[in-house]
Write a structure and sequence with these properties.
heterodimer, A: 112 residues, six-stranded mixed sheet, B: 112 residues, 0% helix
Amino acid sequence: QKEVEQNSGPLSVPEGAIASLNCTYSDRVSQSFFWYRQYSGKSPELIMSIYSNGDKEDGRFTAQLNKASQYVSLLIRDSQPSDSATYLCAVMRSGNTGKLIFGQGTTLQVKP
Amino acid sequence: DADVTQTPRNRITKTGKRIMLECSQTKGHDRMYWYRQDPGLGLRLIYYSFDVKDINKGEISDGYSVSRQAQAKFSLSLESAIPNQTALYFCATAGKNTGELFFGEGSRLTVL
């Protein structure tokens, strides 16, 4: 079992809809969770981080964390064609380990 | 100029050759990482380093070695390249106590 798992997609949503991206992780001691966005041919960039159970909102993006279920998600409201990219979930263990493990990524396509 | 610079950006080599990918950064970060990216597999951690004297293996270190020549420089070597090491390689940096990675533009390696 991979440490961090995502559905590779593609996930296709119409413009203006809510896109829901999901991620599960296997290591219960994981404490820090991140969402990176990667446009085709580009490097990944951080868009959200979350450390506590619950929701964290930043503009059109909401990260949700449920440590009991070992589940983290990213919601994108009012999806735009410019949101079309691969979204990578990343997990870091507790303590200052610095070891960041990524899932395989979910490709999102937002259709005009 | 980019904060995280990788060289070469593209390289084609033959099986059995020694290859070095270099990474330098101007962000002043202590932590540096090497990841490889393959279609459908996301980013997989090869090695990471917290400082010049601290090198750690990642998920897939077999067949690779690294050298942290200075705080700003972290190189990845393939002693004897094989075709299944054909991939896109990313160097990344991070400050202390953070999972925000800053990526270079990637080095595309093809092993024939």
